[in-house]
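step: validate -> pass
step: tokenize input -> pass
step: predict -> running
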Amino acid sequence: MDLRRLFVNRIVWLMVLAGAMAPIGASAAEPPVPGELIEGLKSLKTADAAKRQAFYDLVAKKGDARLATALTAYRDGQLQLKDDRLVAYGPRINVPGQGSVLPLIDAITREPVKSTDGQPIYVQRPDLSGAMRAPPPAEKRLIGGLLSSLSLNDPNPAKRKDAIQSAGDREDETLLPILETQLKSGSSSAYSTVLKESIGRIKLAKGTREQKLEAADLLTDVRTNNGLTSLQKARDVPENKSDAELSARLDRAISAGESYQTRIRWIQNTFAGLSLSSILILLALGLSIIFGLMGVINMAHGEFMMVGAFTTYVVSEFWKAHLPGLYDYYLLSAIPAAFLAAGLIGFVCEIAVIRHLYGRPLETLLATWGIGLILIQTARVGFGDTLSVTPPKWMEGGIEVMPDLYFPLNRLFIIFFCAACIAAVYFIVNKTKLGLLLRATTQNRDMASALGVPTRRVDALTFAFGAGLAGLAGVVVPLYNKINPSIGQEYIVDSFMVVVVGGVGKLAGAIIAGLGLGFLSKYLEPLLQNFKAMESSASVIGKVVVLGLIVVFLQWRPSGLFPPRGRMADA
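step: predict -> pass
step: emit ->
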């Protein structure tokens, strides 16, 4: 196949793929809100009680969830009619240069209202002088119920799901016909589980005996945690206990739910362990090179991670101020910036301090501990104590794999990022000239020097490379945690445990040990929480147990999973 044919085939394939994905990412244009509804909203300004009631009935019949914003604003006395357009104030947002402001939005489309110069209108305080008068209390309650029913058809999938679940939480039997209609229609297959859950919970709490039997079967199918809670509550009702058939159905449903939830918790703990392991491995990769291959006990390794975290913060704030429209892509520059910033500081530290202490591990411990204190105080003076980084919007939320099984996108990103870093480190150490010089210098420094290898320069680059890897760990930590100058100290002990258990100087050992310690920690903590005496301090006791198991393991294998190499092997 020649290059031209290959190119044409690729273009055709991309066109087919784009066509296949189009229905997923973009739906057909929504029809406009019926004019009679919009006119009805406008007429609320002067309508009497009878006309307002007629409008509420029309809204209930149409069931158009796009009216929710306007109805909420009307109920709260904030709906305004300006230039024949219904407007209201949206929730407060932070705008660079203006602080916390209220945007003026179209009450129907929720789009921002713009001034004559094309800029969105923001205000510090709402001007309600031209707002429609709020309805009387009885109508406010009516509008509240109307909003609840409208929210069940909200075009936003997340809001619609929350509304359906909220109906089950409130056990609102007035919404039962709407929920059952949606379930029977089959057009809401994406919401079938949460619809069954809410219908079952409402019928179990407010229904007849036949409806309770039906509810037990529904909740047996879904096996969600909310449904399990409602089943356990219903089982304790004396009326239900006296009914042998209903009691048996409830017991069967509870047994199915508990079995399913046990499996879900096991999967969640596995995922949490994999997420924690990713952070530990990212730190241990750099520490394995610095401590394992160079023989330097680097107590400042956590602070190099902190440098990467604060570099990520600086880059994100720069993008937020100067490139707000592209903020979701700030990681494209934060990742190399964090690596270079931590690596540069590591390079300077090696030249100024570390290279004079090779072969004296205890002195490197004290020196790097002092370097860490300097970095902590420098960060505290420059940035303060606690900061947070706004994650990209594409990293918000998560993927629901099964009912009650939810994988956060930020944790998934951390796992894939760690895998990419492992692949990159393996390639650099084993497939590049720098890696060859690194391995030659650490395995036999005198022979490498005799062959013309610039060992001093390799030492500095190796230390900088290990520090840069710690900086990469600092990129992902702000995605799920606040950052402060002392954040590195939360991870340094665990990182040393990973390197020691895996065997100093062996990257494969760091990866295996990181996975093992991460999984062990996340499996032990929920296990210890089953004991009431340990429930409040399960995480602390879990760390103690893990440390004890490591001590026992090292008694059996003092060299860890893999024997040490490099200068540590000669020490």
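step: describe -> The chain has 23 helices and seven strands.
step: cleanup -> pass
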